[in-house]
Amino acid sequence: MPARPDRRARGDAAEDAARHLLEGEGLRTLARNVNYRFGEIDLVMRHGEFVVFVEVRYRHDDRFGGGLASVDRRKCRRIVLAARAWLAHQPALADAPCRFDIVAASPAGLDWQRAAFMLDDL
Questions:
Q1: pLDDT tens string 4-40
Q2: N or C, which end of the chain has less CB nearby within 10 Å?
Q3: CA dihedral 15, 121, 26, 84 (to 10 degrees)
Q4: Angstrom distance (rounded) from CA 109 to CA 94
Q5: Residue 40 to residue 21: CA distance in whole angstroms
Q6: In a 3-state reduction of DSSP, which class is residue 27?
Q7: Contact call for residues 113 and 99 (beta carbons, < 8 A)
Q8: Each residue of 42-90: pLDDT tens digit?
Q9: What is the set of domains in the chain, with CATH numbers?
């Protein structure tokens, strides 16, 4: 079932806000909404030597733990699979160190968690 238009609009607005926040902190956008059948990456960015894969999660409230808590081990694995697939098509970046960040968005604002998970965590 496709996302409701209002839900999709909130998600798009959260991704835009996250991108603006991160670009303001010196990250450079390389790609947006990278989709594979096995996973998706909201933002791919460059931060110094790092390729940063960013998951943006919007939650209206933190009743169930908020945006950060909503990125479980299964979601992390799917992000990693998508990151590997994306890197396979980017030979110039294939050996760059990678980082996985999460931006939790809510009506209260944005919470950027750098290196929110590592490959060793999976």
A1: 668 788 888 999 999 999 999 999 999 999 999 999 9
A2: N
A3: -70
A4: 33
A5: 21
A6: coil
A7: no
A8: 999 999 999 999 999 887 656 555 556 667 888 899 999 999 999 999 9
A9: 5-121 (3.40.1350.10)
Helix (H, G, I), strand (E, B) or coil at 25: coil
- Which residue from 33, 102, 45, 42 is spatially nearest to 71, judged by alpha carbons? 102
User: What does the alpha-carbon distance between residue 46 and residue 64 come to, in Å, rounded to a whole number?
Assistant: 31
How do strand 109-117 and strand 39-47 relate by DSSP bridges?
unpaired
pTM of the entire predicted model: 0.88
Vertex 100: Cα angle to 6 and 92 (nearest 5): 110
Q: In whole angstroms, give the CA distance from residue 54 to residue 18.
A: 9
